[in-house]
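Dear colleagues,

As part of the handover before I leave the project, I'm documenting each prediction I ran so the next person doesn't have to rerun anything. This entry is a single chain, and its sequence is reproduced below.
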Amino acid sequence: MAGLSLYFEDGHDDLDDFGFDDYGSDCDGIRITAFLDAGQDNLTPLGRLEKYAFSENVFNRQIVARGMLDVLREFSDNENDFISIMETVARMSEDGEPTVRAELMEQVPNIAMFLHENRPNFPEAFSRYLVPIVVRYLTDPNNQVRKTSQAALLVLLEQGLMSKADMEGKVCPVLLELTEPSSDDDYKIEAVAIMCKLVSMLTKDTVEHLLLLRFCELCGDVRLFQVRKVCAANFGELCSIAGQEATEKLLMPKFFDLCSDSLWGIRKACAECFMVVSNCTNPEVRRTKLSPLFINLISDQSRWVRQAAFQSLGRFISTFANPSITGLHFLTTSNSSNSRNSSIDGSPDSLIQPRSEQLQSTSDLTGPPSHPPEGNSSAQPKEDGTSSGQPTHSAPLSRQQMDDCTMFNSFSFWRSPLPDITQDLQLLQEEERDEWKEDVPSLDAQGPATSSQIQKVLDCLQPHLDDPDVQAQVKVLSAALKAAELESQREDADESVSESNSCTGSPTSDELSAMSELSLTDAQISDSPSSSPVLNVIPQQLLDQYLSMTDPTRAQTVDTEIAKHCAFSLPGVALTLGRQNWHCLKDTYETLATDVQWKVRRTLAFSIHELAVILGDQLTAADLVPIFNCFLKDLDEVRIGVLKHLYDFLKLLHADKRREYLYQLQEFMVTENSKNWRFRYELAEQLILIIELYSHNDVYDYLRQIALNLCSDKVSEVRWISYKLVSHVPFSLLSKIATTLHNELIMRFCHCTKWVGRQAFAFICQAIVEEDCMPMDQFAQHLLPSLLSLSSDPVPNVRVLVAKALQQSVLEKTYFKDPGSAYSDELEEALSELRMDKDRDVRFFATLDPNRNVMDTAALI
């Protein structure tokens, strides 16, 4: 005991009086407020609190600071006691020992939350007692105390406990003072970091009024690179809050300086937030200023900068998305007081909403360049490469535009004209070199070019493919040639149909429908590659850099996982280019699909259904289905990506193509590792949705057996979801087949020798009734008698589910509630027996109110 004098120099203190005898450095498991218990000093609890809060012993003061929340819980009911405790807290905040101040600050967020929930005058008390402590500790000389106060401040802001007046009047002035040019370096760096984190929790007006100009100054701090690095890392956050006008006027010049900073870490931070910054600018700035800047980052001398730039390339390209091409529009949302606007893939201030119909008709997309469609003059590029008709911001669609989209009729636009590419070919001829210019045949300027004319031009251009301009024109001409050939085939088909009709009479309605669908398909294919040049969507340099991400040399010089980043962003790039420019990405997608790294193929497998939505059914069937088939035979790590969205992909295919996969669904039952039960679980979940895509006979012939096999799985979770799958099958079958299935269920489950099978039958019956998978009269005729027979099963776990099915599901249906029902007597008799069952769980569920959901019985299986 002699060593105790080192800890307690106050000779009047008695360890037994205030309960510190068992305390050590780790006293979390001990009641902190033990020092308030009555002892030999005859002091009141608050008097004892005062004594130890200002004791000469540091350990005493630490314990009091750590237990301040418990003290408030015990004495906050009395207003005088509450004020006394809060004043003690304020006085303790001036303690000279840093550890005491740090302990007290750690409790401030908890104390604030407690006061918010229990005190009616919380804002006043919080602003008066706690906010000054937090603000003062931001300038504390001790590093630990400052870090603790910064963390506490962020928690208070995230929880919405600090008022706008306190933020603007107390917190922001301190941060502005600490970020002055004359401020201490350590304080300045910390203040910049906390200010950047604070921005996302403040309103736009507060940021613009108080912090925006100071942030711009800090971006140009030439003395401290740490300050510039923090600003670069948080630049996107500030742009998303400040909005487009402030970004372009004040922040954009600073962003250019940061992107050309001498330190690679700052340039790397700029590359990482490039997409967010781009989304806060208008299309013209994005194309003319940000694109060249991003190209510089991609070709940066630092490998780490290039790596970050390539990782952000796909996301940056996605900001060029034009609603007239993607079929999506940006819907702006208001900014709340303490939260940022919603975002998609990190893009602020906007939500991407799909339209109910295609925005433009195919005739709009394929119209001659000399006559651009009204309201969309993007077909006429300016000399500087920008689109003259491009909107300055992604605004919501007007009501008239939305009405036009809703009224779109695919049949009205099935006959789209062949695009007139004469002007493009003439422009190409004017730019050709003198030595081979005269070898290119001239085209008739009076009408659309024929396939033979286009082929002659292509033949002449083949020797000059080294010229990038020629390469771009060859792509357009090749697509136009394909479109012309398809148009010729379509006209031949029309002529043959006309001749057939003249001989056999007018066509039937089914034939007309088939003709219109075929013509629409041809029109979509014809306008896909040639409706709008890629240069009108995104700068060609960005596309070239993106396509080069599959180059093996990139993996050596930039990033070994660059192909994975390319695959991850490919749906966004495809959406931006539009399906009419899919030919630009097709080879890249096929290269990624055969990449040796399974992570790359896995990324594509998880997003192939999204890409199918973007491309449409025709391109999906031609280009994605073969790759989808390869993924089905890949590693389990790749197959799971296909399996998780199997329903989403299959529903986009035509019925005949979709039916081919019925034979392959059984293959998902086989995995490389038999312990991978989650694979089979996912298959059962997908089959529940897939059932609606197939005919009754197909469900019975193919899906029924898979469902029954899953019901016999070794893993309980797989069996549980499979029972739900089986309950969906009868609803999809014809009467004769359904009767056969009912008998199979009874024989397989109800008459099973194992109690788990009989219990499964009770669950399947309950699921059928709850989800109305079959008419109740058929259920009563085929399945109810077998269910009632299980009410006397010798196993209590079976009777539990029978009682639950009868009480909570069957009797809730009007068909069985009717007193005149033929089965009411049998149901009441069975429930009466279950209510008097010797097992209390059975009695509980037999008498339970159907509207009361007490427990999940999954644990009983």
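The longest strand covers residues 328-331. Residues 468-504 form the longest helix (37 residues).

All the best with the project,
I.
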